[in-house]
Amino acid sequence: LLTAISIERCVSILCSSIRRLQHLSAVVCPLLWALSIIVIAAVTSLCLLHEHEHCRMALISMYVLNFLIFAPLMVISSTILFIKVQCGSQQHQPRRLYIVIFLTVLFFLLFALPLSIWNFLQQFSYTVVPSQVVFLLACINSSINPFIYFLVGSSRRRCSLVSLQVAFRRVFEE
Questions:
Q1: Are 98 and 79 in contact (CB under 8 A)?
Q2: Neighbour count for residue 152 (Cβ, 10 Å)
Q3: Where would I find the G-protein coupled receptors family 1 profile domain in this sequence (predicted)?
Q4: Could you list the pLDDT tens digit for every one of the 174 residues in the chain?
């Protein structure tokens, strides 16, 4: 989903003169959820049926798909989006939304991707760091988004504490 959101935002900025399909996100996100559920169900069923070699190949395929397609697309589109927003300061753009997307992707890459890499390496019985480290990073990733929303939503007010609800509203109004 982060990849789809990053690409969609990037395309909407780069092709701002072209009328964007208004319901594209509403269609793409459920399709991605469905695809994710199908892939996870297939991998899980292979692994639960003790089809060790098929399970291993399915897991490796899933990780390779993440590393070679989804993660690079997310990084490229988020970088383009960030550069375009920074360079286009004359236009009125929902900058906070783009900052939230960029930070979410950045922290995903820093905190969640190591777990995927660790899982991938486990398929080859190769361990670089203890599991506790990558699980801690994944937990941080799972809990960091509300803080990103709060900080970006309250960034315009110096030294004043803004409620989390107001910060969420500011970010998502744009």
A1: no
A2: 21
A3: 1-149
A4: 667 777 777 777 677 655 555 566 677 778 877 887 888 888 888 888 877 888 888 888 888 887 788 888 888 887 887 777 777 655 555 667 777 777 888 888 888 888 888 888 888 888 778 888 989 998 898 888 778 777 766 655 544 445 656 666 665 665
